[in-house]
Amino acid sequence: MLILPLLLAIAASGCSEPESTAPPLSVADLSGDVWRGRAIAYSGYRNGQSPDGARPSQEQVAEDLRILERHWGLIRIYGADRHGEDVLEVIRREKIELKVMLGVWLGTEPKAAVENARQVAEGIRLANEYADIVVAVNVGNEVLIEWTNHPLPEQRLVRYVREVKAGVEQPVTVADNYVWWRDFGASLAREVDFITMHSYPLWERKDIDEGLAFTIENYEQVRAALPGYPIVIGEAGWATYTEGNLHVPRGGDERKQQRYYDELTNWAADNSVTVFFFEAFDEAWKGTGTEGYWGLFTADRKAKPVVQDAFPDLMPDGPTSPAYPDRIRTAGPELKVPLRVRFAETIPDANVNPMGPGLAAAEALAVEGAEGGTALRLAFNGEGWAGVFFYFGEYDASTATALAMRLRLPDEVTQLELKLEGPETNTQSVNAIDYATDRDEAGWRTVHVPLAEFDRIDPSRLAIVGLWRPADRAGSFVACEVLVDDVRFD
Questions:
Q1: CA 230 – CA 104 distance, rounded (Å)
Q2: Which residues of 42-75 are buried (b: 16+ CB within 10 A; e: fewer)?
Q3: Lowest-pLDDT range, 31-40, 42-51, 178-187?
Q4: Which of 9, 122, 238, 453 would bridge with 257, disulfide CB 3.0–4.6 Å?
Q5: How far apart are alpha carbons 85 and 90 in whole angstroms?
Q6: Nearest CA among 28, 192, 16 for reference residue 104
């Protein structure tokens, strides 16, 4: 497989200028040699490392960057933190031929307010101290899209964008899902120097035959909604292994990754669109399911098939991704879990899909007082985002008036995200605890949410009910056990 010699240049879209305010920075201003070449997203956390734990050593970072400079010229990193500074220090000290789009990571406030301020200050400092390496600054990653696990109000984000723009010479951007930019991005587009959008066909249940066309459609929708603004695809990739029913069966695959990379590379080069392929290396800290297998290289730095022609010295000794079982594993009826998930007479019980590094266990248990004698036990470790999806294909709930379930959970959990999602990943969430009754004698609370609360979701086309991220009043993840029973539409 020949990896093409050109992936990116800033989007010379050829579209008309906006009717109102001109874009703050033109395509010509952004174009240049630094944006012509290949681009890739990089996070260096290896097995046993994570953003909240041990970080990579500078020697490990140097090994990674030596690999990447052989084939890419521009990398995207996500935080103005010690790992981010290590990347910049190593590039300068080792004279590595890479430029960097520096990230400023933002979390949910008020809990993350102090860290957000530190990230902004450090992002400005690093962009100035390493001005010969940092070619752009990205402020906030997926903080606006409704399904994010670290939301931030747009007004607050704009204040951070303006602060960074006032403090650096490089162009400044915000990275978020294409849906948010398409539907709500007009105001923010006037604040940034270029738009950074994400596209993931695999997460929207597209198989490889639709992959490239779907990404192109996403890009064109954003371009049509925000004409005249430079657009970068900040993340687009294909995992080599998937778990659960949030994708087409066996959607993750090494050959599919190779095909998507080749096709996206061709299209990007032909259309002068900057694409940061997601991502360089598998990240085990994100879990053993889908999230852990987006890399072009394994976590131990071995080449997957997509890059093996270019890196023959990094050939693996065995498989680079897990093998699928004889059938796709879920924690739902395919495995005969006796969980009562009652929606209506017309559809079967839902498949149950645990997800996220913060979920230690999801299993059906015999529980006194549960419908049918069993309930779903979710054991959260409190160390990261996590949840569970009840996936039932596509269901018409337009005759129902409410979404209901029974929960048993500790008093300290005051926030539990309850999500409805349609087949095109349009989502909306409420706090389940706000709709919960007092506990009965066995400790159960009944949650009863009027469907009118999900006013942005078409009730005739529903695919998923989700429960996410038990948290306390301060918004901190809680290590706890949650029992779920009798999920239904009333």
A1: 20
A2: bbbbbeebbbeeebbebebbbebbebbbebbbbb
A3: 31-40
A4: 238
A5: 8
A6: 192
**Omega of the bond prior to 110 within 30 degrees of 0, cis?**
yes
Nearest alpha carbon to residue 42 among 6, 89, 76: 76
Q: Using a pLDDT cut of 90, give the percent of the chain over it.
A: 60
User: Alpha carbon of 450 to those of 130, 268, 453: distances in Å?
Assistant: 53, 45, 6
**What residues does 297 pair with on adjacent strands?**
281, 303
Chain segment 415-442, per-residue pLDDT in tens? 999 998 877 657 788 999 999 999 998 8
Structure tokens at 123: 């992002």
Q: What are phi and psi of 378, to 5 degrees?
A: -115, 120
The two three-digit tokens of residue 100, written as one number:
């960097």
pLDDT at 166 over 90: yes
Residue with token string 């594993």: 329
Instruction: Please state the domain extents for the chain.
Output: 27-314, 333-489
> How many Cβ atoms from other residues are within 10 Å of residue 394's Cβ?
11
Pairing mode of beta strands 445-450, 402-408: antiparallel
Displacement of CA 344 from its chain's centroid (Å): 32
Q: Quote the distance between the C-alpha of residue 274 and its chain's center.
A: 19
* Residues in the chain, total: 490
CATH fold of 333-489 reads: Jelly Rolls (2.60.120)
Distance CA 67, CA 212 (A): 27
Whole-angstrom distance, CA of residue 439 vs CA of residue 410: 11
Whether residue 269 has pLDDT greater than 70 = yes
Instruction: Indicate the helix (H) or strand (E) that contains 484.
Output: strand 480-489
Alpha carbons 195 and 193: distance in angstroms, whole number: 7
Pairing of the two strands 74-76 and 99-104: parallel
Sheet of 480-489: strand order equals 359-366, 374-380, 480-489, 402-408, 445-450
- For residues 47 and 31, give the distance between their C-alpha atoms in angstroms, rounded to a whole number: 37
**pLDDT of the residue at 378:** 86
What CATH architecture applies to the domain 27-314? Alpha-Beta Barrel (3.20)
